[in-house]
Design a protein that fits this description.
The protein is of the alpha+beta class. 17% of the residues lie in helices and 32% in strands. The protein starts with 10 loop residues before the first helix and ends with a helix.
Length: 243
């Protein structure tokens, strides 16, 4: 495969992406991705996070490589590898499900029942024009993909709940579809039935945040990285009495 060509970034773009750094060493670079920034393959004139990674490339060297992705409107921890050996090691670890991802989500209306559990619901991809959706389906459907998520309720009121989520698999939109499937769609997710106003408070975007990531480090041992929720997420948590 031909290596990607360097992309010219503005000074503001370089400063912006460097301000997202959570952790860096010789092998890895972790960022706290804001909502609204596509990981890869975005449309339009705005650079994706993958393209912004050229801000970290050394002269004559490739940029860091994304190990996984987050939906455009999901915020939180995202991991990259700075070398080919690190990328290979982490890619294999991800395929073997040695990564542990933890998310926070605001859902409505109120807490799910039971308040904690495991969602084992197969999903299938549904293309509608240029848009792709994931749909619950029977496990023996020809397009079925196994999908498993764990959840627990951290705080709840009559109108909303703050959940901690741990996906065991990594299907597209998995957490969003699984929570909608049990009748608790994520606030700010109209694609899957999420409310745009909760308790009289407007929801600024998809209320899903990748708060922690644990994984085997290429140099040995395990590493756990955390990203605090951004102001829009934390503000809605407070406004709804979920903190």
């Amino acid at each position: 495969m031909k290596p990607a060509s360097p992309i010219q970034l503005s000074r503001d773009e370089v400063e912006f992406v460097r301000g997202l750094v959570l952790y860096e060493d010789a092998d890895i670079l972790a960022l706290n991705k804001p909502a609204g920034l596509s990981s890869q393959g975005g449309r339009g004139q705005v650079h994706t996070l993958d393209e912004l990674l050229w801000a970290f490339a050394r002269p004559g060297k490739a940029r860091p490589r994304l190990i996984h992705r987050l939906d455009r409107d999901t915020s939180g921890v995202i991991l990259t590898a700075k070398t080919k050996p690190a990328a290979s090691f982490l890619g294999k670890a991800l395929m073997k499900r040695r990564f542990s991802k933890t998310y926070l989500a605001i859902v409505t209306p109120g807490a799910p029942e039971p308040k904690g559990g495991r969602i084992d619901q197969a999903l299938r991809r549904d293309e509608q024009g240029r848009e792709a959706y994931m749909r619950p389906c029977a496990p023996d459907h020809p397009d079925a993909e196994t999908a498993v998520s764990r959840y627990r309720t951290l705080k709840h009121t009559d109108v909303a709940a703050l959940l901690e989520l741990d996906p065991e698999t990594g299907r597209m939109h998995q957490l969003r579809v699984h929570l909608a499937h049990i009748g608790r769609p994520i606030a700010g997710d109209p694609r899957y039935g999420g409310a745009l106003v909760v308790g009289g408070h407007p929801v600024p975007r998809l209320m899903l945040h990748a708060t922690a990531l644990k994984f085997p480090h290429p140099a040995g041992g395990e590493k756990r990285l955390e990203a605090p929720p951004p102001a829009d997420f934390a503000g809605l948590v407070t406004a709804l009495g979920l903190d």
